[in-house]
Design goal:
Signal recognition particle alu RNA binding heterodimer, srp9/1, 2 domains, four-stranded mixed sheet, single chain, 2 helices, alpha/beta
Length: 140
């Protein structure tokens, strides 16, 4: 059994997940919009273009997401999506793309006692990220 990350957005789910797929090398799978529901009772409030459910594969992991009706959306808290790039160059590329226009930067890229490069931020879509490149500080 493997956990699946499920993210909620404020009406920009498809835009955010497409951006993540492009930056991280993921692949967008099925996308079900409100308009795809068989009847009005099966739809969520907020309009036909809202994403009810979608999936992105990222390596062997699956990330799922949907839009949340505005009265049901709450800002993510208490977790971060953690990515471990395999090189300093990849770290910088991913950081630059995901942190562009970030809502907040909790820890700018820098060296720590456990990693050559580490950063924490919340991107423009509201997703909290943690990037960690161990480099030579990784366990052997």
């Amino acid at each position: 059994m493997e956990p699946t990350i499920y993210l909620f957005f404020k009406g920009n789910c498809l835009e955010a997940m497409t951006h993540y797929a492009e930056v991280l090398g993921g692949k967008i799978g099925d996308v079900f919009r409100n308009a795809d529901a068989p009847d009005a009772e099966s739809r969520m409030p907020g309009g036909d273009n809202l994403v009810m459910n979608m999936v992105m594969t990222l390596g062997s992991a699956m990330v799922m997401a949907s839009d949340a009706p505005s009265d049901m959306y709450s800002k993510p808290a208490g977790f971060r999506v953690s990515i471990s790039p395999t090189s300093r160059e990849e770290f910088d590329r991913i950081h630059d793309a995901l942190a562009k226009d970030a809502e907040s930067v909790e820890m700018p890229p820098g060296e720590t006692f456990w990693a050559e490069r580490f950063a924490m931020f919340t991107d423009r879509y509201g997703t909290p990220w943690m990037l960690n490149y161990e480099g030579n500080k990784g366990s052997a």
